[in-house]
Every structure is written in C-alpha cells, then in structure tokens.
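Entry 14. Structure prediction run on the chain below.
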Amino acid sequence: MDYSQLVQSPLFRGISSDEIEKVLTGTSKKFRKYKAGEFIAFSGEPVSSLMIVLYGVVKGEMVDYSGRVIKIEDIPAPGALASAFLFGSRTFFPVNVVAISDTELMIIEKSDFLKLLMNNDRILGNFLDMISNRSQFLSEKIKFLNFRTIKGKLAQYILHQTMNGRLSFNLGMTQADLADYFAVARPSIARALKELEDEGLIEASGKVINVLDRKSLAQLISD
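Output returned:
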C-alpha cells in the first residue's frame, strides 16, 4: 500500500507518510473495492468501522418520500465516510453511500480505531476536528434545505461564501452541481441566479460571483 496518499487525509493531517505507515502497520484493517454505481452502504445500516476512500469518489444521497434523490455531497479520496456517526447513541448511516467512480476503501473496525485514537494524540485531535467540521457542514446543509425559495438557498450560500468582508468568490462548481447541492432542478438554479443578477443583488462573471447588495440578500433569507 502507498501510504503517501493518506498524507492529505484530514485524519492524518500533519503526519508524515512514514509515521502513517508505522501507525497503520500495527492496526488491523481491510480493503474493499467497489465499481462505479455500486452501493457502499444504505441509510439506516450500522456504522461499525472507519472507512477511508483510498481512491475514487463516492457520494452521499437521500431519497425522500416521493422518490426524489437528493445528493448531500461528494466525498473524494482520501475522505472518510460517516465519521461523525461512528460513536454515539445512533451509529447509523444517515444517507445512502454510492460509488461515483471505481473506488477502494480502507476499513478499520471501531474497536481497533478506538485503540488508535487512544495511542496517538495527533490522530485523536484530527478526528475531533473532523467530526466538528462534519457537524458544522450538516448544520449548514439543513439551513439550505429548510429555505422555501431557491433564491433564499442561493442567498444563504452566497453570504456564507463571502463572510469576513469578502465581496466576491469563485463558485467552484457547475450549475448542475449547485442544483444537486440544493436538491432542485438545474433550470431553477439558472433562473434564480439570473433573477438575483437582474435585481442588482449580485454580478456573475463566469464562475466569479460579486456581491452588490448584502442587505437585500439577507432579506431573502429572513422572508
């Protein structure tokens, strides 16, 4: 195994590939491969191990009562799956996990991972950061899904991306990606972006979004 690919993993942040190899050599682990489109886990299944994407990309998605599929996020290598649900009283996958491309996972059982955390302060600190970041991400995601209007969802997203006095940002994703992120149809995203621009709230130049009227964007959130 090439341990250098794990250097970029949030779990091993600040740890050299040699040290990662040393730590993991003494830890029981398994490897599992999935084809593109194959389900890795289903919502409601127990989370009994830490799963790290070694290569490939997977996605988390929900299916509502009408059968509509809502993509929560993409998780590329070397991200971890359901890390915030490994410990606690409800240790179940909150979403379906599907391989977008051919994927390989490294799997460490919970008991072995717990020993790893107890024996390495750096990894423990990184793991706590990971699950805190996951909680913050899910909190923001809930906000987006709760807004009734697409313009409200976009306004929240834009304001979040331009915190701390920033006036512009690079969208970093296509309109199709945004549509998946907000669980709406792609034409609706294009229409809402154009309306925000026509109303003088933003200016879009390619993927660069300039904020022109923060007060009016904030009003869309509170409406």
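Helices lie at 17-25, 110-119, 121-146, 150-161, 175-182, 186-198, 214-222.
Filed with the rest of this week's runs.
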